[in-house]
Amino acid sequence: MQELIQPLIQRNDSKIVFVVLDGLGGLPVNGRTELEIACIPNLDALANRSACGLHIPVAYGITPGSGPGHLGIFGYDPLKYRIGRGVLEALGLGVEVRRTDIALRCNYATIKDGLITDRRAGRIPTDQSRKLTERLRAELSGIDNVELIFAAGMEHRFAVVMRFPEPLSLEAAMIRDTDPQKEGMAPLKAVPLTKEAERVAKIADMFIESAHKILENEGKANYVLTRGFSGMPHLPSFQDAFGLNALAIATYPMYRGLARIVGMETPVLEGSVQDEILFLKQNYLDYDFFFLHIKKVDSYGEDGDSRGKAARIEEFDSLLPQLLSLNPDVLIITGDHSTPAIMKGHSWHPVPVLISSPYVLGGLCASFSERECANGELGIFHAVNILPLALANAGRLKKFGA
Amino acid sequence: MQELIQPLIQRNDSKIVFVVLDGLGGLPVNGRTELEIACIPNLDALANRSACGLHIPVAYGITPGSGPGHLGIFGYDPLKYRIGRGVLEALGLGVEVRRTDIALRCNYATIKDGLITDRRAGRIPTDQSRKLTERLRAELSGIDNVELIFAAGMEHRFAVVMRFPEPLSLEAAMIRDTDPQKEGMAPLKAVPLTKEAERVAKIADMFIESAHKILENEGKANYVLTRGFSGMPHLPSFQDAFGLNALAIATYPMYRGLARIVGMETPVLEGSVQDEILFLKQNYLDYDFFFLHIKKVDSYGEDGDSRGKAARIEEFDSLLPQLLSLNPDVLIITGDHSTPAIMKGHSWHPVPVLISSPYVLGGLCASFSERECANGELGIFHAVNILPLALANAGRLKKFGA
After folding, report:
1. Helix B253-261 to helix B85-92 angle, to the nearest 10 degrees?
2. A371 to chain B, closest Cα gap in Å
3. Mind giving me the DSSP string for B149-208?
4. Which candidate in B33, B71, B348, B381 is best for mutational testing of the A interface (most A CBs within 10 A)?
5. Residues 276 to 295 of A: which have CB under 8 A from any B CB?
6. CA B136, CA B133: separation in Å to the nearest integer?
7. Res. B99 pLDDT band, cuts 50 70 90
8. Which of A196, A314, B175, B178 makes an SS bond possible with A171, Cβ 3.0 to 4.6 Å?
9. Is A354 helix (H, G, I), strand (E, B) or coil?
10. A363 in reach of chain B (CB within 8 A)
């Protein structure tokens, strides 16, 4: 797809606003989905005059994590480009990850006589964990020319980014977890699965040993288990792939991190959805493409709170007129995946999507919901096609062939 | 797709009539598309008892030229087989292009002291241009065993086909344009981008030099700029790929040329849509497959004339009973791409398609329009699937696997 698109790109001064209501899609609770119980007159009216459909984030039956969910709607094949768990954890904790980095997820753990007796160090409190991570940061800034960057997490969790002086191939991250997954076992060595990973595995083992020495009198949290060694996927930037100067507006670090992977600008931002929209308005003249991420819809879905999820969608609906008043050339509203409240988690279900532009049929959906979007003019289609449609509606794609 | 289809082909005496209303798909003007404002009772009734859907000519968001638009509905992957600009121009001017040929688009231009002062030779009148092309044809029939075939075009435009004694690989056409694209620059040499293109580039430079000598006292039109070097795509014939003996009925040379690329019979034909249908009737016994091309629907779309486009569709509707009275086993009516009047050009929008045969569900579409077809039993699908569906409905495909 990107090979087809790239030579057709033409730049113009159009604006594309791309709203992601995280975990938007749902399933019926007492017969109605969250989108169907929500009172969303603005979204309903917009859906009626837009091109609507349902997008499949990765493939039929596949429940995406946040990484592949976002890569797909950003126009990158989530089966081709993989974001490892270490990288995602680091991004979620607000750490930058570069192409010279290997990221890993770490647990504080308890070791006694060479055996792991608690893989989570008794789930130590977050403030205690932060202090330990602070200590590691102070005493262990690097090993053998490799910089170590620490990011404190919740309870026993933290992340480490190993920054190498040279760029690394993706093979360099192919290292087995050192977490034995069971208590009563010895921790494993960092086993390299490729030639390129040998040096990285050695550094990892040295890091674990040094951390153990620093932590050895810290009681339960006297050891570090590592998982999810991963490097940054080598993907073309949003600018190179689509010719778009893009701004990410997201209050959660992980989503800024995902946007940064594709080369969007990702200023740190906190606050409400209203604050996010104000930020978009303030920066409207300076970018072509605005990725506006709204997290809380997913959070209530994860909690199994159907009414709460509907209320988050209603909140966005009440703010939608502010986006419409900007009169963007193309406005897209969708999610990165479904999070039905009855499932309390991500799911594989196709996600409603709405494309508003002057170049649509419209009139096929009475409201913005999973069932109405199933009858839309976009059909049921793979998420990677959303971005080419955005470009086409913005007049940013030349004709293919003569 | 072709690898799957080819071993399944079985021949029978069924007839498939394949009508292409060029640029059929549209968008609403004051709420209604061209198909929706047109009074087309025959098409509406037929759609109601047919399998309907929307086809995507190339890919989501991709606006096809006429080449890829037709290759797709002919059952050839338009991403795999590319038709270059030189070839399309030559076909459009009615010149045959063979596998031993390289075709190029040419402009008459003005050169002075080695610099191009007018890339279009003051847009010289067509009759004057024709005379110059006639002169080149008379004085420059070949270079170094390579035959030169000239085709006069409109104003400053013409095409040249270089016919080599030996078949050429597609790499042989990879030659940079000699048109510098800007006035005040020297014309460029024909730079070969591959080893195979070296001989072709040399011939091209010799052609340009010889043409300049012939034209040097012709005032403004004293030079030739060349673009779009291309060879014929190497695709399996319609007969080999689908087992069909096919007749193309088209009054515009380009569409006959496109049909000839896939090996259809392409008799020269002029006249109205009624004349085309009469010609189809006269030849009905002699072929399996009839490609009936109706150009004017697109032409009015390109002009932004929504009402005119609707009138062309109405004209076809009034003649449709003549096709129905032939009682073909399969009748397909679609377009090669959309040409919404509000866009005055080709677009990426899916195109209505109707398949009439005894083996359809039917009853899903009240009329023949973009919006009704969105709810049809064929769904929204890629154009390359139309031909396998035609074969299946004609009883021309065996079961796959045991």
Report:
1. 120
2. 13
3. EEEE-STTEEEEEEE-SS---GGGG-B--S--SSTTSPPPP--BSSGGGHHHHHHHHHHH
4. B348
5. none
6. 5
7. confident
8. A196
9. strand
10. yes
Question: Which of A8, A375, A400 lies at the smallest CB-CB distance from B375?
Answer: A375
Nearest to A399 among B27, B28, B346 (CB): B346
Name the CA dihedral angle for A18, A21, A22, A28, rounded to a multiple of 10 degrees: -140
CA distance B27 to chain A (A): 6
Whether the Cβ atoms of residue B331 and residue B324 lie closer than 8 Å to each other: yes
Judge: B380–A385 Cβ closer than 8 Å, yes or no: no
In chain B, the residue whose alpha carbon lies closest to the alpha carbon of A397 is: B62
Per-residue pLDDT reduced to its tens digit, A46-96: 999 999 999 999 999 999 999 999 999 999 999 999 999 999 999 989 898
Q: Please state, in angstroms and rounded to a whole number, the distance separating the CA atoms of residues B104 and B158.
A: 9
- Write the residue in A1, A358, A379 that is nearest to B59 by C-beta: A1
Residue A388 has its nearest CB partner, among B59, B66, B68, at B59
**Which amino acid is located at B296 in the chain?**
K
So what's the pLDDT on residue A1?
A: 80
Evaluated on CA atoms A303, A306, A308, A313, the torsion sign reads: positive
Dist CA B285 CA B265 (whole Å): 14
Q: How far is CA A257 from CA A149, A231, B19, in A?
A: 16, 14, 51
B83 touches chain A (CB under 8 A): yes
CA A265 to chain B, closest CA, distance in angstroms equals 25
Q: Does A7 touch chain B (CB under 8 A)?
A: no
Instruction: Compute the distance between CA of residue A257 and CA of residue A89 in angstroms, rounded to an integer.
Output: 10
A191-200 contact pairs (CB < 8 A, 24+): A195/A171, A196/A168, A196/A169, A196/A171, A196/A172, A197/A171, A197/A172, A197/A173, A197/A229, A199/A172, A200/A102, A200/A162, A200/A164, A200/A168, A200/A172, A200/A173, A200/A175, A200/A229
Q: How many CB pairs under 8 A join A and B?
A: 98
**Residues of chain A below pLDDT 70:** none
User: What is the tens place of the pLDDT at every residue in B238-249?
Assistant: 999 999 999 999
